[in-house]
Amino acid sequence: MSEIERPTPDPTPEEVREAQALREALEGHGEHELAELAGALKFAHDPPEIDPALNETLVRAAIARAHRSGSRVVYVAFGAATALALAAAVALLVTRGGVERAPELALSRSTQSLFDAPFPRQGGTSARVDRIAEARARDYRANLFARMGVR
Amino acid sequence: MNAAAIAMPFPWPGMIREMRTSASRATKVAAVTEPRATQGALDEKRLVERAKAGDRAALGMLLSHHGPKLYRCVLLPRLGSEARARDALSATYEKAIERLALYDWQPCGIYPWLRVVAMHIALDMIRASRREVLFQSEDLAREIDVAESALQRNQGTAHYDQVQEQHDLDHARRRVRDALERINPRYAQAIRLRVLEERPREEVASTMGVSAATFDVLLHRSLAALKKALATDAPERQEP
Questions:
Q1: Is the pLDDT of residue B93 over 70?
Q2: CB contact under 8 A, B64 and A55
Q3: Confidence tier at A102 by pLDDT (50, 70, 90)
Q4: How many other C-beta atoms can be found within 10 angstroms of the C-beta atom of residue B27?
Q5: Euclidean distance between CA atoms B76 and B72, whole angstroms
Q6: Is B220 in contact with A73 (Cβ distance < 8 A)?
Q7: Chain B residues with CB inside 8 Å of A39's CB?
Q8: B199/chain A closest Cα distance in angstroms
Q9: CATH number reported for the structural domain that contains residue B220 in this entry
Q10: Is A92 inside a domain boundary?
């Protein structure tokens, strides 16, 4: 007797629970082994496109990983880019040859100029520290570049 | 070496637009004329040459252009899960970069080669998995043999990737149809309406002449029957 001709047996409580769990999984709540199979069927029958942003992320990550692991293809590109950067640096040094003027550097000073209002009694500490750190980091970079002759 | 390409950030501003235009063009198979296809193949040939010479932008453009097809037509139907297909695509990119130096340009373009790389990745994942999937490892291994033979014989034309894309989609749909034909037709109908056509549960229950709660049980039995049918095709995934 084929499956279709057989009388449909009443579901057991366990089967009802499983059916309920499957329904919820198909509606996006929880997981069920058969919901995964249903998903596989759907993906084979009507596969969606990949999100272009996700694809770009995967491409970037793969290229970055290849670079880290020293893949020949990417290594050549980075090597060439490094060579160009070195050449540019050398050219910069050469063209600046003979210029001995001392660079103007940012000096140590009070942080008072960074704040134009009295501090509140409570709160804002982190924001103030961030502002100071940002300003001093900017000074540090400026000094560093000035010493290297980059303006 | 194209110094301008090296200096450009990746992706460069026009790259996404260029890829979208290219992808859009690829979907309009009927509208593609021979001269345009030839031009596209020439462009891709240049990109491959640049990528092999180490141009990251060209490499990124090739992968970005062909990756969505690999995901949609090769990996997702065979692996049956978005997460696994994403992992497989990522692994495909890595493997393709690693082996690009070994690739020799062919008139059919780089897509068939990338497809073989992707299928090898999918095969490894299917072999390592214990899930029931529509594509068995033996079938996939056979597909890879066919694809590699075609590559070695240098078969294909400038349209080959589009033909292959459609072939892969049709093949996956045929797989679904064949699998459903192996179970009770009422079970197959329940799966077709609720899963493939994504019709609302209540509507499908009504169509099938049962209550919504009874339909839940019917669908559970349908998918369990399909899982059993697929498992009989997968002797290599039995308990070791």
A1: yes
A2: yes
A3: low
A4: 12
A5: 6
A6: no
A7: 80-81
A8: 12
A9: 1.10.10.10
A10: yes
